[in-house]
């Protein structure tokens, strides 16, 4: 409805009532008219005479103490606004605002009701309670969620009150106005992370004319919801550390951010599913995301790790990433030498280049750290020959000799090429097996044994010993005698050798007078297969024992009384009368004879040469001397104890055999027959002649050779028949050591034949002290001279 100020709408309501008050008039007026504004003419409306108004004291009254809002002009009857009419304060929100006034007329008293209908005008703007509205909305709020907003208030009513609202266009909210509710409806979800605060101006507009409006600012604070999972800075982290890194080394640091705030944005780290093994090697700091080494890292066991890591925020959102950790190799493994095969023992005759063993070298590290060089110690006859891959052959580089080196400890050293390099070594023990390559060798080139004659059978002569450096039976030496003959009898009848010990025993008793030395060969043989052997000469020297008493050859020991020497009566003192000839089968001192006169008819007349046995006159023969002289001569050798023999010598001091009949008387033995005496005389004569003859021949022979030492004292001749074979004679001068004895054999049975000189054994006359301990060099010396020209001694 359009109403202009001042426009009056008149309602006349005639209500028949009491006479005095029978009329009622209504006026409709706009509020806020200026006081004095005329809005009706009461006189006209009530049909009153204007002139009577003043006389009847017309006036407007309010009921009770109520204010008077209008006034009446007594001259014109016009009703005017007396007070400010504010509908809002008078009637608040009542849709019709009626003010009741009364027109009072006196004389007669008349009361006329005046109803003032106050019409609203748009004099109030919509009003919000506060200047701004603060809201907090969680970003998790669902679409369609409604948030009620206190609407604006407009004191005006009807069209002039709030008619609509308008919200500034925005992404999230729309406005829903419904009856008396104003609501913000979430049209698109909020995201704190993109917009933390939203300001929305909300305008309320009324329907008046002119239109009034007001705007309130809605501050929406978006509250965080845990709507963001942590996000890793990288999807994959890669790191590389050397193996054996010290504990607590930081390998890599993972980091994740969470757009949420507060608890929702607090990120903690953890591993995803990792194996127990990996868990013992790495740890992750739940706060900082640092991955550290907590265990041993061994490239050779595991060189790469794949660890899932998880980032959690405070309220259970999580995301994951991968961490690849690679270990780099360190040279932490020494190479190892393995002996794959070994021919042990190896025979000593293995040819050079024989493969003895196979060696394998391994290093668990990688690349350069596993490059291995192999070497063998110096000074052993072996070398390493590289073969396929890490295999080496151990081969010999020279001839082996078990007898020199029987065991080798071969040290093989392997060194890798890491930095610093590591090495290890292995000792290979190798034995050299024996081959029977050494014959037994006697400790001496020859052996000599010295034994006195008449030894007991079974007595030990000496021992030989041979060494064989081979092993066990190859080096076990067995001794034996080599077959041979000594004097025509097998050696085994003289000697025996102990096969195990090499001790040589006499099998029988030896007789120096039979033979003085002999040689045997002893063989030493090992037990190898085939056996090796060597032999050695053993010379056995038999030494003399004084076991033979001197044997008197002349005069005949038979006690023949006809053995008589003729002594010329004219013999001067010192002339040779006769000679006692004795031999001793022994040698040396044992055969060194001495002669003594033990009994004589005339002790002063004859002497005997102690060593020559020559009987000489001591003084000139005189007439007074008895014609028959009788001597008893003892012959002793020089042995210990010495042995002796005695004989009797008959001497006849006469110039002529005519006195022979008296010979009979010479004999101590008167029982000899006359015939026997003649025979003896004849024999002596023949013998004397014969000996003289021989001496002359020999003298001629040896004089030609100018051997002055061959002295013959021709006065005495000994019948050759008295010299038995094999008897040695001793030089009368007693120089025993360097003289040589030659046995002179007389051809038995032929008295006319020559002496037969035989260069006999190369045997020495043994010295008087015959002991086995005698230094062998003495004997060698003696033997060494055995090539000297033979010298001959003829017994005198
Ligand atoms: C070899 O080594 C062993 C034990 O290690 C030792 O008994 C032996 O004497 C050694 N041999 C050599 C020849 O060094
Ligand atoms: C002895 O030598 C032979 C080869 O000559 C050899 O076969 C054998 O094994 C050796 N015996 C010992 C005990 O070494
Ligand atoms: C004894 O040894 C010599 C060399 O020492 C050798 O010539 C000889 O044949 C050997 N005799 C025997 C019977 O073995
Ligand atoms: C010689 O003398 C010995 C004793 O001296 C006597 O036994 C022997 O019968 C004698 N002979 C003669 C032939 O008278």
TrEMBL record:
The lineage of its organism: Eukaryota, Metazoa, Chordata, Craniata, Vertebrata. Keywords: Calcium, Cell adhesion, Cell membrane, Glycoprotein, Membrane, Repeat, Signal, Transmembrane, Transmembrane helix. SUPFAM superfamilies: Cadherin-like (SSF49313). Residues 1-23 form the signal peptide. The chain crosses the membrane at residues 678-700. Potential calcium-dependent cell-adhesion protein. May be involved in the establishment and maintenance of specific neuronal connections in the brain. CDD domains: Cadherin_repeat. It is a single-pass type I membrane protein. This is Cadherin domain-containing protein. It comes from the Eukaryota. GO terms for cellular component: plasma membrane. One of its GO terms (biological process) is anatomical structure morphogenesis. Its main location: membrane.
């Amino acid at each position: 409805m359009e109403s202009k100020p001042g426009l009056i709408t008149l309602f006349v309501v005639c209500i028949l009532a009491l006479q005095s008050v029978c009329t009622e008039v209504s006026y409709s007026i706009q509020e806020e008219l200026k006081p004095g504004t005329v809005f009706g003419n009461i006189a006209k409306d009530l049909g009153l005479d204007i002139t009577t108004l003043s006389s009847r004291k017309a006036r407007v009254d309010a009921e009770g103490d109520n204010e008077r809002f209008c006034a009446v002009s007594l001259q014109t009857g016009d009703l005017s606004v007396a007070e400010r009419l504010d509908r809002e304060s008078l009637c608040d929100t009542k849709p019709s605002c009626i003010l009741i006034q009364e027109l009072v007329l006196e004389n007669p008293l008349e009361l006329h009701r005046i109803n003032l209908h106050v019409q609203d005008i748009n004099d109030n703007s919509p009003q919000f309670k506060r200047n701004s509205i603060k809201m907090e909305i969680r970003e998790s709020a669902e679409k369609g969620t409604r948030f009620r907003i206190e609407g604006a208030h407009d004191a005006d009513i009807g069209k002039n009150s709030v008619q609509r609202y308008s919200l500034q266009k925005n992404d999230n909210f729309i406005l829903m106005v419904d009856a008396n509710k104003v609501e913000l409806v979430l049209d698109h979800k909020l995201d704190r992370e993109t917009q933390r605060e939203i300001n929305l101006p909300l305008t309320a507009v009324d329907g008046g004319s002119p239109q009034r409006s007001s705007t309130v600012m809605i501050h929406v604070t978006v509250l965080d919801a845990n709507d963001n999972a942590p996000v890793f800075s990288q999807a994959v982290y890669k790191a590389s550390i050397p193996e054996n890194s010290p504990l607590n080394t930081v390998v890599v640091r993972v980091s994740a951010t969470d757009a949420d705030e507060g608890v929702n944005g607090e990120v903690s780290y953890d591993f995803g599913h990792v194996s127990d093994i990996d868990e013992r090697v790495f740890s992750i700091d739940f706060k900082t995301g640092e991955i550290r080494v907590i265990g041993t890292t061994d490239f050779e066991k595991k060189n790469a790790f794949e660890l899932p890591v998880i980032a959690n925020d405070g309220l259970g959102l999580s995301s994951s990433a991968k961490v690849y950790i690679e270990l780099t190799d360190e040279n932490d493994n020494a190479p190892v030498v393995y002996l794959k095969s070994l021919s042990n023992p190896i025979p000593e005759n293995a040819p050079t280049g024989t493969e003895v063993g196979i060696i394998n070298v391994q290093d668990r590290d990688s690349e350069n750290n596993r490059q291995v060089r192999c070497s063998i110690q110096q000074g052993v006859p072996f070398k390493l020959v590289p073969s396929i891959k890490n295999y080496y052959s151990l081969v010999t580089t020279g001839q082996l000799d078990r007898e020199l080196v029987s065991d080798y400890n071969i040290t093989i050293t392997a060194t890798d090429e890491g930095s610093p390099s590591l090495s290890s070594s292995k000792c290979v023990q190798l034995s050299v097996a024996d081959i029977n390559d050494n014959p037994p060798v006697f400790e001496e080139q020859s052996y000599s044994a010295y034994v006195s004659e008449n030894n007991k059978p079974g007595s030990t002569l000496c021992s030989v010993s041979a060494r064989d450096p081979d092993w066990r039976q190859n080096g076990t030496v067995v001794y034996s005698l080599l077959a041979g003959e000594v004097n025509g009898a097998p050696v085994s009848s003289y000697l025996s050798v102990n096969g195990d010990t090499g001790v040589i025993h006499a099998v029988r008793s030896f007789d120096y007078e039979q033979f003085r030395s002999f040689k045997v060969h002893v063989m030493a043989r090992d037990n190898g297969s085939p056996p090796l052997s060597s032999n050695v000469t053993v010379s056995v020297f038999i030494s003399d024992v004084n076991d033979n008493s001197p044997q008197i050859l002349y005069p005949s020991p038979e006690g023949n009384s006809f053995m008589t020497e003729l002594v010329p009566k004219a013999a001067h003192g010192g002339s040779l009368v006769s000679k006692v000839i004795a031999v001793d089968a022994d040698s040396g001192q044992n055969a060194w004879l001495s002669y003594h006169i033990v009994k004589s008819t005339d002790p002063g007349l004859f002497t005997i040469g102690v060593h020559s046995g020559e009987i000489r006159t001591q003084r000139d023969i005189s007439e007074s001397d008895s014609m028959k002289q009788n001597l008893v001569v003892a012959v002793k050798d020089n042995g210990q104890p010495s042995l002796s023999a005695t004989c009797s010598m008959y001497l006849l001091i006469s110039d002529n055999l005519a006195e022979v009949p008296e010979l009979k008387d010479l004999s101590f033995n008167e029982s000899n027959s006359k015939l026997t005496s003649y025979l003896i005389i004849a024999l002596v004569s023949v013998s004397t002649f014969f000996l003289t003859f021989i001496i002359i021949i020999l003298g001629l022979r040896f004089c030609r050779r100018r051997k002055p030492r061959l002295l013959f004292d021709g006065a005495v001749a000994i019948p050759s028949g008295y010299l038995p074979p094999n008897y040695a004679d001793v030089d009368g001068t007693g120089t025993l050591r360097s003289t040589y004895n030659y046995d002179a054999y007389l051809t038995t049975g032929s008295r006319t034949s020559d002496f037969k000189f035989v260069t006999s054994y190369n045997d020495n006359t043994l010295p008087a002290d015959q002991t086995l301990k005698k230094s062998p060099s003495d004997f060698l010396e003696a033997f060494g001279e055995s090539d000297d020209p033979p010298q001959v001694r003829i017994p005198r």
